[in-house]
Amino acid sequence: MITRELQLVRRPQGRLEVDDLRVAEVEVPALRDGQVLVRTSHHSVDAAIRIRMGETTPAGYLPPLALGAGLEGTAVGEVLESRAEGFGPGDLVQHARGYREIAVVDAGAALGGAGRLTRLDPTLAPPEVWVGLLGGTGLTAWAGLLLVCEVRPEDVVWVSAAAGAVGSVVAQLALARGCRVIGSAGSPAKLEYLQQDLGLHQVFNHRDGVGPALDRAAPDGIDVYFDSVGGDHLEAAIDHLRPFGRVALCGSISGYDGGIAAGPRNLFLATAKNLTLRGFRAGAFADRAAEAVSELADLWRAGRMDLRTDVYDGLEHAPQAMVDLFAGRNVGKVVVRT
């Protein structure tokens, strides 16, 4: 059997380019005990994949992708054949062998604890919701805000990259928990989405200067910062956090795609103000995924979770989807559908 997969053929020099990737035909391996064969329909496009395209990756992270090898990512699809207990043909599943139209998946495989082969309930939500809100995207937002930051109703919460996949879920979760929510993004259209569609209390364009904008949006300071950007955003947050403030260090996208995310110059303020800064990855909270799915699904079905999904049809459009993601052209979740 032949399938198509997305491969890395050139390590990006600076910003990712479409020609750094290719779609190639490959032979599907024979199925072995403990494996399932999946036809994947929805592939999650996540910024963190860019980290693995370099020669090396940070200590403790996933290894670099090999040139000429298929990419990996969380995805949702239908089981075609199974030699793994608990899975059968027709099952809707989540797995970590995305960027392949047909994938052989080990029942115990995962990406850093995320994306483990899991049966999904198709009556609860369709695949495009499972691959985002009810998948790794939602777990990242839920765990970061509720478990890492232990958000409280009276908190003032700032969410960076708030119009993105994770950020938009964080912002809406914080609103649902009774917080005052500030969101930042990089275009007028995204700010309009955050304020008019999501109902955030304050929004600002980070391109206008993060520190001064945060002065205006939160003159009395903030209690929680959800960081997906790093660099000047993290430095501004440390300046504006009130005593015993909390930071969820989810990502540092300002340094992923050829940029440099400089470390904060004001780190001693974390000591002076008794701040808590905690890095985390969603896979560390995989044992709490059912709780996240329950709360997020309830909010979505109640109409309290707006989902924006930018869908690229066909694996051949996955390279452009990634380039667009890093260029900030999308609102909400980016998905490749095959």
TrEMBL record:
CDD domains associated with the record: PGDH
SMART domains reported in the protein's UniProt record: PKS_ER
InterPro entries the record matches: ADH-like_C, ADH_N_2, ER, GroES-like_sf, MDR_fam, NAD(P)-bd_dom_sf
Residues in Enoyl reductase (ER) domain copies: 14-336
MF terms (GO), sorted A to Z: oxidoreductase activity, acting on the CH-CH group of donors, NAD or NADP as acceptor
Gene3D superfamilies, per database record: Medium-chain alcohol dehydrogenases, catalytic domain, NAD(P)-binding Rossmann-like Domain
Key words of the record: Oxidoreductase
Protein name (Swiss-Prot/TrEMBL): Zinc-binding dehydrogenase
